[in-house]
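Figure S4 source data
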Amino acid sequence: MVFWLIVGAMTLVTILVLAQKMLRQGHTSSGAEPTGDRKQSSDMKVYRDQLKELERDVARGTLSSQEADRARVEISRRLLEADRIAQAKEAPVNAPATTNRVMMGVVAVIIAASAFGLYWQLGTPGYQDLGRAKRIALSQEMRESRPSQAEVEADMPAWPGPPPEAPADYLELIEGLRQSVAQRPDDPRGLDLLAQHEAALGNMIAARKAMGQLIEVKGETATADDFVRQADLMVNATGGFISPEAEAMLKAALEREPRHQLARYYTGLLFAQNGRPDMAFRLWRGLLEEGPETAIWWTSVRSQIGSLAAHAGEDYSPPEAPTRPSAPTAPSAMPGLSGPTAEDIEAAKDMDAEDRTAMIQSMIEQLSERLATEGGSPEEWARLISVLGVVGNTERATAIWGEAQSLFADYPDALATVRAAAEQAGVAK
C-alpha cells in the first residue's frame, strides 16, 4: 500500500506541474495584454535615439527640414520593423485555453496509465518490497517450518497397487521377497532388491522404508549413491516435495561426494522450493554447463533455469540443446537400474530351482521388453547382456549385443560400457 501511495503521489505531482505550466500559457494567450512596458530591443533603442538626435540637428541648423523628413521616415520605418520583430519573439505560441485544458486531461490520463501499466508489466504487483536480508530470513523460516516426510506422505493418495500389466508370477515373487526381508531384516541384498522392485511397482513409501533400513544396515559403509537413492525415493513419495528428511539424505551424500550431480540437482530444487533462487541458480548453472547432455537431469534443468535466473536477477542464456539425438537414457530418475543383477541371482539361491528360474526369467523379460520399446541407458543394455550370459543364454546375448552396437555406434563411451559386458559374457568378438 505504501508503494502505491508513493507512486500515485509522484504521478500526481508530475501532472500538476505540467498542468500549471500549460494552463498559465493558455491564459496568457486568451487575449489579456501583459502588464508593464514591453521590453525594448537594442535596435529599437538605437532608432529612438536617432530620432532624438535628428530633432537636435534640425534645431541646430545642421540639417534642413527636407533632409530631416526623409531621414525621419526611414528611421521610423526601421523602428516599426524592429518593434514587429520584438513582438513576434514575445508573443505566446500556445493554443487557446480550452484546447490546453483538453490536452492537459489527455496528458494526465496517458501519464497515469503509462506509469501503472509499465509497472504492471515489468514489476510484481502485490509482492512485498523486501530487502535481501529479510528475504533470506523468510526463506530460512520457510525451510525450517516445512512439514515432515511422514506428514506429506499422509496427505498423498494411497498406493493404488501394482500396475495392471505386471505379470502375476512377478508379483508373487515380490511378495515372497517381502516375506523374506521381514524374516531377515538385516540382509542388505534382500533390502536392496525390495527397495528396487517396490519402486518399480510405484510403491514409493515401501521402497523408501526398505532403502532407509538398508542404509541403517550398511552404517558407515553407506555410499553417496545410497543416500541419493533414498532422497530420490523420498521425493517421489511426496510428489516432488523435498522434506527435511530428504534434505538430510542429500547432505549426507554431498559430505561423501561433493560433486555428486544428482545430489546437487536435488539440492538446487530444495533451494528453489524455499525462496532461494539465487543459490538454486548457481547450483544448476554449474550442473548445466558441466553436463553431460545425456544426464537424466539435464533437460529438466535446461527447461527451468531461465525462469530461475529471472527470479535470481541474473541475465543468463542456457546452452543450446544438442542438435543430434542423445544417447538413449533410462526414463527413470532412479540411480539404481531396473532388471536383474548378479546379486539378484545370488539372492534367489534360497528359492527352489523352479521359483528361482521363474524370477530371473521374469526380470529378464521385463527389462528386455522395456529396452526394445522405450530404450534405456548403456548400463541397462550391459546388464541385460551380462545376465543372459550368467544364465547361459549366449545366443540371445549375442543378438542383444548386435543390436546395442547399432544403437550406440555414434557414442563411443556408451558402446564401451556395453562392450565390456559383452566381453564378460563371452559374446563380443
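Figure S5 source data
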Amino acid sequence: MIADTALVLEGGGMRGVFTCGVLDNFMDRGIRFPYVIGVSAGACNGLSYMSGQRGRAKFSNIDLLEKYRYIGLRHLFKEHNILDSNLLFNEFPNRILPYDYEAYFHSEERFVMVTTNCRTGRAEYFEEKSNPERVINIVKASSSLPFVCPITEVDGVPMLDGGIVDSIPVRHAMEEGYKRCVVVLTRNRGYRKNLHGTKVPSFIYKEYPRLKVAINRRSQVYNEQLEEVERMEDEGLIQVIRPEKPIVVDRIEQDINKLNALYEEGYQCAARWKIEPQE
C-alpha cells in the first residue's frame, strides 16, 4: 500500500487498454493505493483492479471485443447505443467473467467513479460498496458517451460520461486530502484537443441546457487539465504514467493487434516506473 497517495485513472474509450496494462503490472507487483478515482473507461478498468482480478479488464477490452464485436455503428442503429450494453453491463459481470463483488466490498481502499449530472452540467463523484446493481449503474453512467449512448439514471438523476466535465480528476483527489497522486493518462505528453470542440445541435439535449454548455466547453476544459497535469508533474507534485508516443488507437478502436500493442505498452511503462514516496 502506497500511503497517502491517490491513483487517478483517465478514460478514453478503447485507449483505456493502456490503463489495463498499467493496472495489471501494479497487481503483479502488489501495488495498491488507499484511494482510486476513475472516469469512464478508467472507472470500468479500475473496478477490476479494486477486486484484484488481474487480466479481467484486458479480457473485457480485447478478448471480449474480438469475440462479440460489442462496439460499433450496428449497435447504434439497432439499439441507439454504440455499445452492446447488455453484454458489457449484464452478461459480462454476471456470467461470462463474474465480478468479485465480495473482494471489492471488503477492500479497505476507496474507489470513486465520476459521472456528469445532466441537469447541472457538473461532475458527480460516487462510491458504492454494498449494492452490486448500483455499482454497475454508476460505472455504466460514467461510461455513457454523449450522443452515442443513452442517458443512464443513478438514484433517479440523469447522468452521462464523467469525462465531459472532469476527465482527469486530480483536483478532486487532492480536495479529498490526497496531496500525492499517481495519474494514468491515455494520451502522450503534449497532446491537446482541437479547440473547435463539439457543438451540440439545438435539438439535442434541449431539456438539459447546462449539459450542452458542458459539452461545448469539453475540449477547452480538457486542455486546461492537461496543462495543469504537466505543470504539476514538472514541479514534482504528481507522478504521471502515460503512453510515450502518439496514440494510434481510436476511442472505438476494433483492431485487436493495435489494442494488444497498447496494452503491452501500458504494462511496460508501469514496469519501468519506480514509484517512490514523494517528499
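DSSP finds eleven helices and eight strands in the chain. The chain has a mean pLDDT of 94.
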